[in-house]
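Entry for the shared binder. Reason: the reviewer on the internal report wants the predicted structure included alongside the sequence.
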Amino acid sequence: MGNDNAFAELQRRGFIQQVTDPEALQHLMTDEKVVFYVGIDPTADSLHAGHLVAIMGMAHMQRFGHRPIAILGGGTAMVGDPSGKTEMRKMLTRQQIQSNGEKIKQQLSRFLQFGEDQALLIDNYEWLGNINYIEFLRDIGRHFSVNRMLTFETYKRRMETGLSFLEFNYQLLQAFDFLKLYELHGCRLQMGGDDQWANILAGTDLIRRVKSVDAYGLTFPLLTTATGTKMGKTEKGAVWLDAEKTSPYEYYQYWVNADDRDVQKFLSFFTVLPMDEIDAVAELQGADLNTAKTILAFETTKLNHGQEKAEKALSAAMAAFGGREIPKDLLPSSSIPRGKSKAAEDHIPSANIKRSVLRQQPKLIDLLNDLGMAKSKGEARRLVQQGGVYVNDKRVADVDFNLAENLIENGKIVLRMGKKRYLQLVVV
């Protein structure tokens, strides 16, 4: 795919919140192969769905012929970015950061093509780890105005709760990253979440002052769902890209349960399906919109976990909730199976229970709590009282309901909470 329409593609998909010089950047992206970077602090051993806007922004840019650099902030993670935070981050050891970085590399490689003249993955500890502080202050610090820094919203907010000098340095370090990437790789564009706007501006300004070259910044919107919750958050916590933390089936369920109002937006941001097809989703309602959600869930799961695991998650969902045939003319570029897919119960989440435990007739609300289906016994009790708990698809009305051997069907007991959450208790 040529690199002539990358800016327009990002704009059409909704990725652009702020740009330093839109017209100049659009010309640059049309005329040249642009080297750009996005920074990711490896403060956990997995990325989560909240990172996907930045990751997909990079992926779309690469599809149009531009070169991504993913910066693992091994150096900056040892300081902590105050952006969007009301308190200091927990300090990490170098060993923790390196371990997290290795896992993040594997996750990014599902979305980006790495290799010669392709995407790069660089740890900024390479140049920040042995920095000479006196030289850094003399060569870099002199270009920064404290008065100007204090006008940025990030620092104004932190001034109220206490801003450490450690965090005050963060903007200088991130700007220095941009300068080093320009020197080493000809990087002219930094992209990131809109809470990074001040840091990105600092980098473009530093490059202009030190190198007399125009560099650019572009920020992505900070997405929330239609219900107002933070992107990638559920009642159970973060939706992780790591299959050990969030299984492919749970990942699929996160997307298939999207609010109706978010479906078109999520297809634009989190899949590579053509926008002409996605625009048509705006007209869908009812069952057709639910089918579009199925394709959204399938495509997002495929990008993160691969086609095979996406198909297994689809089959498991059909076994749990009933299947629907996917029309050939709905988002036709999707690789989702179009015929009547075979439902596969063995991919529904399961847990083992000993027959000897069942003989003791455990209380259902205790089990719902122990298995993590309810946050507490009180919540489990309320769900039963509200008619939202089912055993083998029969509603449970009694808060003192006990499980027993006579409930075993085909070697298992199926628990359901609400319309969406299933768990198979496999009797062993």
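Summary line for the report: Residues 349-427 form a domain with the Structural Genomics Hypothetical 15.5 Kd Protein In mrcA-pckA Intergenic Region; Chain A fold (CATH 3.10.290.10).
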